Amino acid sequence: MKDTNQYIRSTSAMRRLVLHGLLGAALGLGAAAPAAAADYPEKNIRFVIPFGAGGGSDVLARTIGGVIKDLNLTPVDFIYENLPGSSGARGYRDVARRQGDAYQLATVSVSFFTTPLLGGAPFKLEDFTPVSAIAMSPYVLVVRPDSKIQKLEDLKEQERLTTGSVGVVSDARLLADMMSEEMKVRVDVVPFDGEGEIITGVLGGHIDFMWGNLGEILPQIEAGTMRAIAVSTGERLAALSDVPSFKEKGYDVEHVMLRGVVMPKGVPDDVVKYWEGVFEKVAASDLWRERYLDRFKEQPRYEGAEQFAKSLKQTRDDYAAILKKLDLLK
C-alpha cells in the first residue's frame, strides 16, 4: 500500500511538472520558448501594412521583403497583409494585440504616433518592440520661383508667413512650429486635404512656402516650378548640395520621417537581435540602394533597436507638444 501511494504521489508530481512545462511553452515563458529557439524563424513572417496597397508603407514593406528574399537573408517568406482603416489604427491594433508573437512585423508611419495621442486607437508606443530604422525621408522647404524669399535668412525677415499641412497634425506642421520658434517669426499653418493642393497653394501664391518630401518635390525643383530654400536634415543632401540646412545656419530645426519596423511587445531579445542583423544587411546592400533609396530619393539611415526606440520616443514627444499647443491634447 505504501509503495502504491508513493507511486501515485510521484506520478502526480510528474504530471504537474509536465503540465507546467506545456503551459510555459504555450505562453512563451522561459528560454525554451519556440520564438527564441536557435532555429528561428521556422515559419513565414506576417508583414502588416496599416494602409492600402500602393502607398508609402506598402512600397516600403514589400521592397524590404523583396531585398531580403533576393539576398537569401532568411529561410522563410513574408506574407504581406494590408489592413487599412482609421488612419492606421486597424493595422497597428492588430499587431499590438499579438503580444510576444515573433512572427509579426509592421511598418512605422506618422499615424503610429498621432492616432494614439489623439485617443483614436487602443494602442500606444509601449505596445510595440522597436526593431530597426532602415531609411529616412528628409523634407525640403520650397517656394515659388518669383517669391521674395530668396535664401534661408529671408525667412527671418518676414513679419508673417503661411504654409500648408495635410491635416491638422503632420511633419510639415512640426517643422513649421520649430521654424517659428527658432527664427522668431509668425508662421500660420493652413490644413489641406493632400500634397497636391498644397503645391497648388504655393504656385498660386496662396501660401508662402511648403515642406515636401524630397522624392515628391524634387521633380518640381528640377522643372523650375519650385525653388529650394533649406532642408530639414542636419547636413546638406547630396541631391541638393547647394541648398543649406537650418542646422548649419545655427537654427535648431531638424526633423525627418524615419522609415522603420516594429514588432509586438514581449518579443524575445534574441529575435530582435536576429532582425537587427537582417535589416542592417539590407540597409548596407546595393539592392536596397537601387530599389528604394535611389528610386524614391530617400536617405540611408540604419538604427538598431536601442537607438530606434529613443528616436520613436522623441518623435512621439514632438507630436505631443504640437497637439498640446493646438489644445488637442491636455
Describe, in plain words, how this protein is organized in 3D:
- This protein folds into 3 domains: 2-30; 44-137 and 258-325, D-Maltodextrin-Binding Protein, domain 2, CATH 3.40.190.150; 139-249, D-Maltodextrin-Binding Protein, domain 2, CATH 3.40.190.
- Helix 2 (56-70) links the parallel strand 1 (45-49) and strand 2 (78-82).
- Helix content is 42%, strand content 20%.
- Helix 2 (56-70) runs antiparallel to helix 10.
- The strands form 3 sheets. The chain has a 6-stranded mixed beta sheet, with helices on both faces.
- The chain has helices at residues 2-27, 56-70, 89-96, 111-117, 152-156, 171-183, 195-203, 214-223, 269-283, 286-296, 305-325, and strands spanning 45-49, 78-82, 104-107, 128-137, 139-143, 160-166, 186-192, 210-213, 227-231, 257-264, 299-303.
- Mean pLDDT is 87; it is low at 1-36.
- It is globular.
- This is Putative tricarboxylic transport membrane protein.
- Residues 1-37 form the signal peptide.
SS class? alpha/beta
Biggest sheet architecture:
6 strands, mixed
Question: Judging by the overall fold, what is the CATH architecture of the largest domain?
Answer: 3-Layer(aba) Sandwich
Instruction: Give, in spatial order, the strands making up the sheet with the most strands.
Output: 2-1-3-10-4-11
Quick one: how many beta strands?
11
Give the ordered list of helices and strands. Answer: HEHEHEHEEHEHEHEHEEHHEH
CATH topology of the largest domain: D-Maltodextrin-Binding Protein, domain 2
Overall mean pLDDT:
87
CA(first)-CA(last) distance = 72 Å
Fraction of helical residues: 40-55%
> How many DSSP helices?
11
- Give the tally of structural domains: 3
Net shape: globular
Radius of gyration: 24 Å
Strand content range: 15-25%
CATH superfamily annotation of the largest domain = Bordetella uptake gene, domain 1
